[in-house]
């Protein structure tokens, strides 16, 4: 093919895409989400960096352990409803059932609140038991338990706002304002020559995030329209929870790859050793930035296209996401490989010991990114149970690997387990999408085309 022909074809495709209202919305919404996520990634890096500077090595390790534990438990408390609302709101609005859409929205909010409070109480009751087992210095976990409630509610409210199309309002509170609050706290502590405690940071974080959630709630309920008499029966509620169960399982298992390695390390090694690995996980997570931004908009669009039987357009959307995510992700991975050591040293002396885990984790999250919105595709199209089973098997093996390797090779063993888990479930999930839906959400769809 000559260059002139290739250019002509490219221009024709761009003109076609420009005239497609849905793809234009995806591009515009994805760009908005990306801008917010880029800002969030920068703030997240500054957050963990400034906290490392404002805390002792031991307190920073405790912060990493407690923060990862609270994040993981908040996913358990979500009951999968934050994923479910991304499917149900577009589904019922597309079916011209606004009353049921609103009823489902409120149902998810109430159950998220109940489960979050229950999980916080459960952790609080478990802390003395851990103390009796000989684990000392766990008082800061009481403050971490309080953080579970706003974390759970924030995730549900943000998902509901995304489903309603309010991407900026969904993301700005937690991703921008909340993280900026951490940074302001750390700067104040450094300027006042005081050392922050993990417990104090958790109390501050919980208070600020709960305030932001309350502000978001008004916008979420306003976007739902006027209050209506509930059209959900007890049977409907049970069916929603049953449908959300595999989504919940998938969310928990994915959160496993994000947070449980730090929690496991905290049980085997000292807080001072956990700190560098926690910093490495935060840096590596930047590689998921493009995919997260795309998912912010793609999930409800996938649900709408599937329930409208527009499969060809869905593959077109998935291919656009794959291209837009892969190129910058690979560039970011190369940058981390080259600058990883000095990047880690900015957190503190000795943090570069986590360079090998950083590379392994970056490879894991990078591979997950280039595989596209595999999880959302299966969950938005009714294959949530099969998807949850895939994740259960792969992360069962991941846990086994980490429990074997962490006591022997420490942080490197934890990173190896995470790499195995993310690669295995993405390849298996892609195979399921191809066989059940004849859709490929990964970058490999370009080769098939």
TrEMBL record:
Pfam families: Polysacc_synt
Record membrane topology: Multi-pass membrane protein
Cell location: Cell membrane
Transmembrane segment boundaries: 31-52, 64-89, 101-128, 140-164, 176-196, 202-222, 243-266, 286-306, 318-343, 355-378, 390-406, 412-429
Keywords: Cell membrane, Membrane, Transmembrane, Transmembrane helix
Protein name stated in the entry: Oligosaccharide flippase family protein
Organism: Devosia salina
């Amino acid at each position: 093919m000559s260059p002139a022909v290739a250019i002509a074809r490219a221009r024709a495709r761009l003109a076609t895409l420009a005239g497609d209202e849905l793809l234009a919305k995806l591009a515009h919404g994805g760009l908005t989400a990306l801008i917010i996520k880029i800002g969030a990634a920068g703030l997240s890096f500054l957050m963990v960096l400034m906290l490392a500077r404002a805390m002792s090595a031991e307190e920073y390790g405790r912060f990493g352990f407690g923060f990862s534990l609270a994040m993981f438990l908040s996913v358990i408390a979500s009951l999968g409803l934050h994923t479910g609302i991304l499917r149900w709101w577009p589904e019922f609005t597309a079916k011209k059932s606004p009353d049921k859409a609103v009823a489902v929205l409120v149902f998810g909010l109430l159950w998220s609140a109940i489960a979050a409070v229950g999980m916080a109480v459960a952790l609080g009751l478990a802390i003395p038991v851990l103390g009796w087992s000989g684990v000392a210095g766990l008082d800061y976990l009481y403050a971490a338990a309080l953080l579970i409630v706003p974390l759970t509610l924030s995730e549900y409210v943000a998902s509901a706002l995304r489903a309603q199309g309010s991407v900026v309002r969904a993301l700005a509170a937690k991703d921008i304002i909340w993280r900026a609050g951490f940074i302001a706290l750390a700067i104040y502590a450094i300027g006042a020559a005081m050392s922050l405690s993990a417990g104090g940071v958790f109390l501050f974080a919980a208070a600020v995030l709960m305030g932001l959630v309350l502000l978001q709630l008004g916008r979420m309920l306003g976007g739902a329209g006027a209050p209506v008499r509930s059209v959900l029966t007890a049977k409907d509620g049970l069916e929603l929870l049953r449908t959300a169960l595999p989504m919940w399982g998938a969310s928990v298992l994915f959160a496993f790859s994000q947070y449980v390695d730090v929690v496991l390390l905290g049980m085997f090694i000292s807080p001072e050793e956990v700190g560098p690995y926690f910093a490495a996980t935060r840096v590596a997570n930047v590689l998921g930035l493009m995919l997260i931004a795309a998912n912010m908009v793609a999930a409800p669009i996938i649900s709408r296209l599937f329930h409208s039987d527009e499969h060809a357009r869905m593959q077109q959307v998935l291919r656009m996401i794959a291209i837009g995510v892969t190129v910058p992700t690979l560039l970011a991975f190369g940058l981390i490989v080259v600058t990883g050591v000095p990047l880690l040293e900015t957190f503190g002396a000795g943090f570069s010991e986590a360079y090998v885990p950083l590379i392994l984790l970056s490879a894991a999250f990078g591979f997950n990114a280039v595989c596209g919105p595999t999880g959302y595709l299966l969950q938005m199209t009714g294959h949530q149970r099969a998807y949850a089973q895939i994740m259960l098997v792969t992360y069962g093996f991941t846990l086994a690997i980490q429990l074997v390797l962490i006591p022997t090779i420490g942080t490197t063993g934890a990173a190896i387990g995470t790499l195995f888990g993310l690669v295995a479930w993405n390849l298996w999930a892609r195979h399921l999408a191809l066989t059940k839906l004849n859709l490929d959400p990964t970058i490999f769809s370009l080769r098939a085309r």
